[in-house]
Fold this protein.
Amino acid sequence: MIKSMTGFASGKGVFGPHSWTWELRSVNGKGLDMRLRVPEWLTGLEAALRAEMSKQLSRGNVTLSLRLSRDESQPDLVLNEAAMGAVLEAVARTQEMAIARDVTLAPSSAADLVALKGMLDAGSEVDDPGPLVAQLTTEFAGLLADFIEMRQTEGRALAAILQEQLGQVATLTAQAADLAEQRKDKMAEALRDNLARVMDNAQGADPDRVAQELALIAVKADITEEIDRLKAHVVAARDLLAQDAPVGRKLDFLMQEFNREANTLCSKAQSADLTAVGLELKAVIDQMREQVQNVE
């Protein structure tokens, strides 16, 4: 199933004193162009996010913004390891002394020790951004999944539109084939009349050469190849729409081929009805090209 290059996802999160909002959006583009706006002090975050997006996205102008704020009333708390080490040594010595005197002490919990004065210090966001970076990287996976799901939903809608337009192209191609078949007798009669008129007014002209020129005109007016190629392009486009891999570039190229055949058909029409069908074909193909511009 194809994906659209248009997508949007947003999210919020909290970790310690930090809170943030994400916004991830994209529009169509020839390649994959990623623009990230994340705080520079979050070392390694941008590289990790770029790597993850590169794995799952192939085309589109993608913009990611991260707005981070800090609640100063809830400072980061960092364990004072030196002070805790001293306390643990003191606890161990106390237990040894109590055992030597046959005194039983109630066990101390980690919460009791951490609650002691000096065990926790107010930290700073620049001391160690690693835990926050890890949390943001983890939560980004969910944001990216929502973003891709939206692109897939848009892609399904695009596929439905393109399938309908391909149906119109197939119908118009069949009409063109019928009209071309109907005009055969008229064209043959016109060629015979032209040949007779030329021979009556061209003294000394080589009859074989004149016949060859008229035959060449008939060949140039034949649209059988254009009809066959249009039918083949419809089949190829439907096959591409059924694939899971990115097919936007291939579809874009195929639209050019569709347009080329429709132009040639119009130039060879020599019939008001056939010209009308050719112009309608061109209109539908132009509509398809606009839709294909947004396929990943």
Q: What stands out?
A: The chain is about 60% helix and 15% strand. The first strand starts at residue 7 and ends at 15. The mean pLDDT is 85. The chain has three domains: 7-73+128-150, 77-122, 154-292.
